[in-house]
């Protein structure tokens, strides 16, 4: 029986450091995700690569990236609204890397969309 199956079935109650490290590497997730006390500001390697490239850009390049990112973000919010997937708790739980400022922006945006639905002909 594999180590992971024994963990899931509860046969192994206290896995060793090496086992947990191997699992976290295999799943490409930080080890602290197993603790239930996640660091809300984890930066993974692909994100770090993006940041390094962004920092190398001149101001025009950064502005272009910022505009594109904002456009994509707004489209994502609209998708959430259309699919009615938004719930504050669900979003916080699933998208743990969002800042409180971004969550507040999302809430404000969703309220704006809901007000638009309340108007006849919209």
The average pLDDT value, as a whole number, equals 75
> Quick one: biggest sheet?
none
Shape: flat
Look at the helices and sheets and give the structural class. Answer: mainly alpha
Helix content: 55-70%
* Proportion of strand residues: under 5%
Order of helices and strands: HHHHHH
Tally of extended strands? 0
- End-to-end distance, in Å? 58 Å
Low-confidence region ranges? none
- Integer tally of domains: 2
**CA radius of gyration:** 20 Å
Number of helices: 6
General description of the model:
- With 122 residues, this protein is an all-alpha fold.
- It folds into two domains: 3-34, no CATH class; 45-118, no CATH class.
- It contains six helices and no strands.
- It has helices spanning 3-9, 17-27, 45-56, 59-83, 88-94, 100-118.
- 1% of the residues are buried.
- The mean pLDDT is 75.
